[in-house]
Amino acid sequence: MNTNKNSSAQALAVSNHRSSNHSTAGKLTFTKAIKTCFGKYTVFEGRASRSEFWYFFLFANILVPFTIGFIEGIFFPESLELAWMEPAPLDWLLSLFYLFIFLPYLAVYIRRLHDTNHSGWWILIYFTIIGIIPLLIWLCTSGDEKNNEFGQPVLPIS
To answer: 18, 19, 50, 16: which is closest to 33 by C-alpha?
Structure first.
């Protein structure tokens, strides 16, 4: 009788341990999202979660340019006075970075559109005057919770 209580308590403890691990194991962290995007730099099929896309967006458009600008301000303070008149000393580094991330950025953008059940070709409306609005809406909305024509939902759904 006592062993039955112990086995029930052990089963409950294992169940609680698994559920607590499950809640954090599938979370996409900032660094995991960056690694995923660089790892899938030529993968244009499948789907990308909102967190994967927006973490990479944050990395590519805010974190890296800010860091390069900060370094530039420390080592080349005189360039801050002429910032609007001539290129800054490390502009070449930022240009090289954007060249380096072009494919991973394009791939995650297309996979994010797939998550909202839109073809990757919709990225072309970005080049119209008003096309940015629907793209921004699609990038911000939740992905399909069920399978769509581009694959299974990304777990965790975000």
So the answer is: 50
Alpha helical stretches, state H, the chain: 2-25, 30-39, 50-58, 64-75, 91-115, 132-140
Span 28-41, average pLDDT: 94
Length of the chain: 158
Distance (Å) of CA 69 to CA 60, 61, 64: 13, 12, 9
pTM, two decimals, is 0.76
Determine the Cα–Cα distance for residues 89 and 85; give it in Å rounded to an integer. 12
- 122 burial level (CB within 10 Å; 0-12, 13-18, 19+): middle
Tokens of 116: 């909202």
Model pLDDT for residues 70-129, shown as the tens digit of each residue: 998 888 877 667 666 677 778 899 999 999 999 999 999 999 999 999 999 999 999 998
